[in-house]
Amino acid sequence: MKYGSGSAAVDHYVNSEYDSVYGMSSQFAAIIAAHVMNRQTKLGISGHIAEIGTFEGRFFIAMALAMQPGERAVGIDTFEWPSPKVRDKLHSHIERLGVRPHDVTILTANSADLAARDITDAVGGQAGGQVRFFHVDGDHTPKALTHDLDLAYAVMHPKGVICLDDMLHPGFPLLTVAVYEWLKAHPDMRVFCVIDREDIVAAPKFMLCRHDAHELYEKDLLDSFPEWHFEAASQWEQWVAIVLTPHPRFAIVE
């Protein structure tokens, strides 16, 4: 299946080069994320992108290719696994796949040791230091995720998006509990979209924004990708979130 985000650079990368970068992020999720970034650009929402858990850069490169002039991409990772050479691979992929190196800042660090000032320093104070799209794929423990959410929240644009990886993953069931508890402590925030990986039974991503910004994204996603809309919405007590998947169906139990 060929995917389209509205960005020629992203679409070429995702459809032709994505598998050349080792990682587990899906093509489908990258396309939806890039589409949301394009939507932000059309709405005049400017800012930077950031990612915790960059690894070799598979998802990071897609986000960086969707940036606008003057914006910066910040990648954060310890770059220890499987060896320190992973950082060299990241830089190699960035140069090979059309991302301008001078628009990128790579922080070799554990996100648990970072504060908001470290992110704003990394973008050089440009665009007020605000991040319009923050992808979180770090240490998969509730404590670490809560810290990463706090970090992303502290630097996010008022109409920005936080994207969380490996939600509902069978290997990390308490991550969803951590998100629920964090949302209770931040009543101005909500989940507005659940992005499936490649199939409705796989571990998806959650997209979060402030309550007063969700209408900027939801209808546009439904209008742009009606064939990927799973009609059974995601229930979050006081609100519902849309679900997008390349195979919208109910699981068949035999």
What is the topology?
Blueprint: H1 8-17, H2 27-42, E1 48-52, H3 58-65, E2 73-77, H4 85-96, E3 104-108, H5 116-122, E4 131-136, H6 142-155, E5 156-164, H7 174-185, E6 189-195, E7 205-210, H8 218-224, E8 229-236, E9 239-244
Parallel strand pairs: 1-2, 1-4, 2-3, 4-5, 6-9
Antiparallel strand pairs: 5-7, 6-7, 8-9
Helix pairs in contact: 1-2, 1-3, 2-3, 6-7
Can you describe what's shown?
The protein has 254 residues and is of the alpha/beta class. It has a single domain (8-244), classed as Vaccinia Virus protein VP39 (Rossmann fold), CATH 3.40.50.150. It has eight helices and nine strands. It has helices spanning 8-17, 27-42, 58-65, 85-96, 116-122, 142-155, 174-185, 218-224, and strands at 48-52, 73-77, 104-108, 131-136, 156-164, 189-195, 205-210, 229-236, 239-244. Helix 6 packs parallel to helix 7. It is globular, with a radius of gyration of 17 Å. The mean pLDDT is 93.
List keywords for this structure.
9 strands, 254 residues, single chain
Short description:
Helix content is 34%, strand content 22%. It is α/β, with parallel strands linked by helices and 254 residues long. It has a single domain (8-244), classed as Vaccinia Virus protein VP39 (Rossmann fold), CATH 3.40.50.
